[in-house]
Amino acid sequence: MAETLAKWTLGGGSAQVGIEWLKSRSPVPYPEALAAMDERVDAIAKGSASECVWLLEHPAIYTAGTSAKETELLEPTRFPVYRSGRGGRFTYHGPGQRVVYVMLDLATRGRDVRAFVTGLEDWLIAALATLGVEGERREGTVGIFVRGAKIASIGVRVRRWVSFHGVSLNVDPELEHFSSIVPCGLQGVPVTSLAALGVKTDMDAVDAALRAAFDEVFG
């Protein structure tokens, strides 16, 4: 395992259907997460490392995808802002939000990026169902919504047919922090979380739901 990634995860992780699952208990600085993903993606592409799913949180930050517009960053100095190579626009990451970086070899999974993104949506919907929440797509955008509010975002990048970046699911973040951006470019669309919906859960239970649902979609 790359030294950077090992620094931020528990032990050596665990394997499931040839995929290494890793989990970080403390928030991971965004630049170090990017460096770790870069190393792992290159190793997967070379065939020297297995596919990987990394569960983590970040300190409070805003990230800008390749389609982000400057006018959608309403308070530029509130939190650190990072330019990202992932698809999508501005989003917030912070404590109480489960970020999942999904590093899969799409060369062995059909080489279809659109189908992969659809699979990520299916995965989130299945995990939410396990938690008693009905998630749904919204035509014309990417991500998952509950009762008209966005609860999960998706932003991916593919290099040498290996995916990285991934999804974020709002478990119990400070939702007010989304007010300093136009989240995912969706003006006037509210953001919600499992806690705001009254779901009694914690990060470990959410992780268990994500892991169980993963096999249904990608297994």
What can you see in these coordinates?
By secondary structure, this protein is α+β, with helices and mostly antiparallel strands. It has one domain (3-218): BirA Bifunctional Protein, domain 2, CATH 3.30.930.10. It has helices at residues 3-7, 30-46, 113-130, 203-218, and strands spanning 14-16, 19-23, 51-56, 61-64, 81-83, 90-93, 97-103, 144-146, 149-159, 162-170. The strands form two sheets. The chain has a seven-stranded mixed sheet, with helices on both faces.
**What structural category characterises the helix and strand content?**
alpha+beta
CATH architecture: 2-Layer Sandwich
Q: CATH top level?
A: Alpha Beta
Mean pLDDT: 93
Largest sheet: 7 strands, mixed
Distance between the termini: 22 Å
Shape: globular
Order of helices and strands: HEEHEEEEEHEEEH
- Runs with pLDDT <50, length 5+? 11-15
CATH superfamily grouping? Bira Bifunctional Protein, Domain 2
Tell me roughly what share of residues is in helical segments.
25-40%
Question: How many structural domains does the protein architecture include?
Answer: 1
| CATH topology value | BirA Bifunctional Protein, domain 2
Helix count equals 4
Strand order of the largest sheet: 1-2-3-7-10-9-8
Note the beta-strand portion: 25-35%
SS elements, strand count: 10
Alpha-carbon Rg, integer: 16 Å
